[in-house]
Amino acid sequence: MTQKRHPQTLAIRGGKAQTEYLEHNQALFLTSSFMWESAEHAEALFAKKVKGFTYTRTANPTIAAFEERISALEGAERSVATSTGMSAIQAAFFTFLKAGDHVVSSRNLFGTTAGFINGVVTKFGIEVTLVSQTDLSEWQAAVKENTKLFFLETPSNPLGEVADLRALSEMAHAVGALLVVDNSLMSPVGQQPLALGADISVQSATKAIDGHGRVMGGVLSGSEELMGQVAVYCNSCGLAMSPFNAWNLLSGVETLSVRMEKQFANALQVAQWLQTHAQVKAVYYAGLPEHPQADLVAKQQNGGGIVIGFEVENQEKAWSVINRAELFSRTANLGDVRSTITHPWTTTHGRMSPEDKLAANIRPGLVRLSVGLEYADDLIADLQRALA
Ligand SMILES: *Cc1c(COP(=O)(O)O)cnc(C)c1O
Q1: Among 107, 200, 206, which is best to mutate for testing ligand 1, by the most ligand atoms less than 8 A from CB?
Q2: Quick one: 285 and 173 in the same domain?
Q3: Does the keyword Cell wall biogenesis/degradation apply (predicted)?
């Protein structure tokens, strides 16, 4: 008799391929292909009459274990792992779209995703309309007869603007479109897009799921039906995750819940301290009680996440804070156990024109933090010194 287990237990104990050696940790199956007992066995495997593995681009036990544990956390029937977050986003678009289709997407996107949508997707005769992260009427007005997909990430990075997933899923489904949500910033511990009506949750596993800045990976989660199609696309286009990366990411999955709970708490403490600092003009963090969408945040998120934006006088001051920080790493990675600090105006958002940046409220004095697992008072002391 097995009782129904909590996702957190399944993230540690679920989806393991056990060999005859009774290894305690998930084994790393570092092999590109698998052998067959006989020609008959091979025929049965290829015809999918028996379960098993043939070739790692298609499926591999270590990658399958990772996918199963992500499914437990996302509340998904099935997940498909890919080489990077960007290949997961590519699969979410091109599995389901063809020339002549139309996409409605939030304007507030991770820089490479914005480049992919504007520079690659549109090359294949797929039309895209960019709309506000928060104004539902803009989404409604953008919908057309050929709209097949809604795309967004929430909360936005680094300003913490929250998109209403329940409302957008209803709007998408009313016109037969899929809602695809990039959940990289919250991870399934902070937000479960599928439970809020999204069809696909996609993430960069490079970020919070790894959590230790080691390897790259991506993963899509959803229904068996949709993920079956995604798996075919990924196999055809060769987007597979490396088994070595899946093996590393499995240890990330095992500690994801505790890491995120503590990092969200640290982030809230840092954000609230920043609010009291005389040199800080504004603090953007989805977990603050004063957040303009606090009711929506409470409804769809478990906590405010790990990313904080805060504004100082100008670029000179922002650079001085960044250069004087000793504990915060000067790097763009997010979701790591090590806290990081960046200047969006000249790095993550550097490719946008100054006008576009200002329209998106990205100003030269804005600093972005990703809050890690260090002791919160030490992070605050570091910022205090850097701001002085
Ligand atoms: C990093 C990131 C991606 C891209 O993931 P990679 O693993 O770097 O390819 C996509 N979306 C968001 C929100 C990200 O932060």
Answers
A1: 206
A2: no
A3: no
